[in-house]
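Second attempt. The first submission of Sarcospan had a stray character pasted in from the spreadsheet, which I only caught after the job came back as garbage. Lesson logged: always re-copy from the clean sequence file. Corrected sequence (233 aa) follows.
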Amino acid sequence: MGSGTSPKGSPGGGNATLGNEKKGKAKPEGPLLEDVQTCCGCRFPLLVALFQLLLGIAVAGVAFLMVAISPSLLARETPHWAGIIMCVVSLVGFILFCITRVPDERASTQFIIKLLYFFLCTMGLVISVLVIAFQCYHYALTSSYSCKETEEDCRCTLDPEDPIARTFTYRGVTDCSAIDSTLPMYYLLQMLLNLAQAIVCLLGAFLIWKHRYQVFFAGLQMGSPSVQNWQKV
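This time the job returned cleanly.
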């Protein structure tokens, strides 16, 4: 009986298996992208910046409508500046959305834009709170007005029976109903818009703070020196 021989493997089979294992262990080179931070299914800060832009346009638009009632209204009564600032904040948010996201330790530009956006969101929050305070005061003031028309102006007082009561004159107003009813409605609308604006700014600042300080890159390098992997802790 002839002795049996085991079949030989194909030439280079072991080398092919070893090559496949090396390929499986190979790691992609190049900059490691940061984990995408999402908000309501969209990448941050797309929705936040979009809401900031819409609210800023709305606040500025309502303020310009208030200026059209009478040129005597003060800047604190017509907060178009708050809407313009919010539009600038939203533009910085869109820039942050468009740039490539890599770990903060490896992208100084991204870190600076994040810091700027955080600062602007905080400033927008403070400005919105100030606007709400001013609008509340003027809303309570105009709600107790007693107005009468004098030529091309509208003169309002808090107490018509008091001869030394403080008088407010609105030039260029021929119909005092614009001061009695329309202006308080605009004040109330500004309060609601700026309240929403403050909430959006608070959300944007909180999300940046949470992503930066609750989950951050510790800078631990693993693997070969040519390939850098950053471990989150």
